[in-house]
Amino acid sequence: MPLDLENVRQEIEKELQSLPLEGEPKELYEPIRYILNIGGKRLRPTLAVLGYQIFNDNYGNVLKPALAVEVFHNFTLMHDDIMDQAPLRRGKETVHEKWSPNVAILSGDVMLVKAYELLLGIDQNILAKVIAAFNKCACEVCEGQQFDMNFETEKDTSIPAYLEMIRLKTAVLLGFSLEMGAILGGAPNEEAELLKNFGERIGLGFQIKDDLLDVFGEQEKFGKQVGGDIIANKKTYLLLKALEDANTTQKQTLEHWLSKTEFDPKEKVAAVRNIYDELDIEQKAQNLAQNYFDEAFSLFNDLKREGHKKAPLKTFAEKLINRVR
């Protein structure tokens, strides 16, 4: 019987709600439950389960380690929102807005500890291997965030540098989720590595689509402030490609808005988006995302496992790729 993705999602949510995340002082623990309960697609724990079930049917064994990835992911979001001064996360107030930046920092620190606690139940024979892979991934996520912050003050950022940044900041955690699931399921090293690389490429394409949604999405569906990247002068693929392809007039207009410190946010978003439309940036970004997805499925096809075992992951990845704007 094929794996039911809705059942997997429900099991993950049930396990997440049962985590012991209450304590005193309440200001330290309430934000943790808050950020975990304001939504999220649970992509990463689902990927861990899907990576596991390719090699082992009893996916109940992977749920707690899978939640470690979700808790870690939300820890990074809590801290990223402080650095980005983001007002919204999934359509709700960010933790630092609802409480304070200091509370968000401390609560995030506790979340990191909780993530490690959730890994401690792993079989001792492979625990060190998983922790080592997790540590490498966690450091890469932080490296990606630092590169992202560096780009804010760099005059010239290349598209290859940006793509490496999003690989580190976003894609490696998707790759690790699949890799960990595969390791816990008993996969040979080369197959766990293949799934990790598959996840990274899906993550790269996913982030490009996320950049697109920031500019061309609807706030009710996107869950964050639409145009936030433009307002903050974030050096996304869209902006970098526009600067690369712009004629003299278009480039001057972009640089004008990039240099302004006082402006009407709606006016700035409209002006920059107009140039994106003139340069067909939306389609160019869609094409790049599709190239990453094509590379991912080329790798996936190299995984020599029964079709019915691979099918749930393929279905999930296809739904992720084709999510509605």
Question: CATH top level?
Answer: Mainly Alpha
- Report the strand count: 2
Globally, the shape reads: globular
Helix count, DSSP H or I runs of 4 or more residues: 16
What pattern of helices and strands is seen along the backbone? HHHHEEHHHHHHHHHHHH
The major beta sheet can be summarized as: 2 strands, antiparallel
The CATH homologous superfamily name equals: Farnesyl Diphosphate Synthase
Q: Report the β-strand fraction as a percent range.
A: under 5%
CATH topology name, in short, is: Farnesyl Diphosphate Synthase
Question: Strand order across the biggest sheet?
Answer: 1-2
Total individual domains: 1
Based on the coordinates given, report the CATH architecture.
Answer: Orthogonal Bundle
Radius of gyration: 20 Å
Please give the structural blueprint.
Blueprint (H helix, E strand, L loop, with lengths): L4 H13 L8 H12 L5 H11 L9 H22 L3 E2 L2 E2 L1 H4 L2 H19 L4 H30 L5 H26 L4 H28 L2 H4 L5 H4 L5 H9 L2 H12 L5 H14 L2 H21 L5 H15 L4
Antiparallel strand pairs: 1-2
Helix pairs in contact: 1-4, 2-6, 3-4, 3-8, 3-16, 4-6, 4-7, 4-8, 7-8, 8-9, 9-15, 12-15, 13-14
